[in-house]
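TASK: fixed-backbone design
INPUT:
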């Protein structure tokens, strides 16, 4: 279906065609199996974390409160993208309506922005816990944590509302083939028949705030944390603390670099192909690995999982 734009005499696009990973049938089956496993693992891991933290009063602390929010964001983010991707691989072709594309863009941008802000809040929580332990209970009180988490969700939804609203004002008259497996701001701007200067300006502003500013705040927080760790006399204590920090920093650097690459370097050609791989990192791989990196390696979480789900004992082999 298509409508007419009387002012510009252009045919409006009502359906977009998403690009699959491969036209080869065998490779599509391989991709389908791989992405389905990733999706199921991401759902299972994050749901286990949420249940374990919710049902164990010992884990009702600021750190695990933020981890619960992270798990929710990972579930929402991967569920915004992977079901449509799996549908396209199963049908060997994928289309998405204009409204569906705008909806995917809205929710994906919301959850990506929220996760960037949440990583900053988590870094601040660890900074207060390690560098200012005597003030931790007051600086990270329940009300403060709720305000921080609420700000994460509200600021990101305001940002995505602006981007989606500006995108909805653009006119798409053809072609309708998106050189990606999902709807994102940079890829859709390439198809617009309207001027996109304002959209590009807002992307730069969002990149600076969500990407650069929050990344610097996170790195500065971990800088103070590492400086405090160096003051620990126990060698074993240093190893344990550095192990935790290195895992967190790996997630932070990977997530920020992939998102910034996507929204600062949309480009075309080979960069678009690289963009597919990069998008997979933050929509599929990261939600799968986060429960392992942040929670399932944690002794307290393992103990909680063993008590609630006896069948996971083999995966959580820690001493009582």
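OUTPUT:
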């Amino acid at each position: 279906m298509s409508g007419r734009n009387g002012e510009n005499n252009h045919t409006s696009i009502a359906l977009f065609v998403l690009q699959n990973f491969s036209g080869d049938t065998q490779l599509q089956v391989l991709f389908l199996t791989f992405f389905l496993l990733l999706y199921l693992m991401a759902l299972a891991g994050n749901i286990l974390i949420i249940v374990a933290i919710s049902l164990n009063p010992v884990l009702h602390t600021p750190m695990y409160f933020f981890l619960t929010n992270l798990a929710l964001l990972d579930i929402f983010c991967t569920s915004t993208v992977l079901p449509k991707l799996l549908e396209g691989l199963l049908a060997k072709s994928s289309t998405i309506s204009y409204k569906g594309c705008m909806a995917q863009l809205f929710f994906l941008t919301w959850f990506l922005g929220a996760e960037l802000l949440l990583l900053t809040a988590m870094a601040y929580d660890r900074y207060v816990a390690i560098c200012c332990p005597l003030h931790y209970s007051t600086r990270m009180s329940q009300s403060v944590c709720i305000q921080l988490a609420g700000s994460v969700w509200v600021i990101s939804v305001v940002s995505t509302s602006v981007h989606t609203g500006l995108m909805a004002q653009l006119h798409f008259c053809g072609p309708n083939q998106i050189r990606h497996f999902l709807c994102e701001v940079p890829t859709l701007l390439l198809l617009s028949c309207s001027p996109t200067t304002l959209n590009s300006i807002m992307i730069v502003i969002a990149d600076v705030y969500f990407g650069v500013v929050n990344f610097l705040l996170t790195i500065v927080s971990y800088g103070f944390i590492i400086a405090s760790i160096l003051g620990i006399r126990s060698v074993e204590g240093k190893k344990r603390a550095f192990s935790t920090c290195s895992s967190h920093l790996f997630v932070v650097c990977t997530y920020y670099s992939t998102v910034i690459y996507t929204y600062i370097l949309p480009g075309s050609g080979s960069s678009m192909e690289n963009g597919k791989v990069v998008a997979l990192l933050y929509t599929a791989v990261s939600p799968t690995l986060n429960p392992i990196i942040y929670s399932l390696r944690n002794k307290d979480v393992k103990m909680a999982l063993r008590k609630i789900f006896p069948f996971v004992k083999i995966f959580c082999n820690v001493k009582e």
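COMMENT: Residues 52 and 308 are 7 Å apart (CA to CA).
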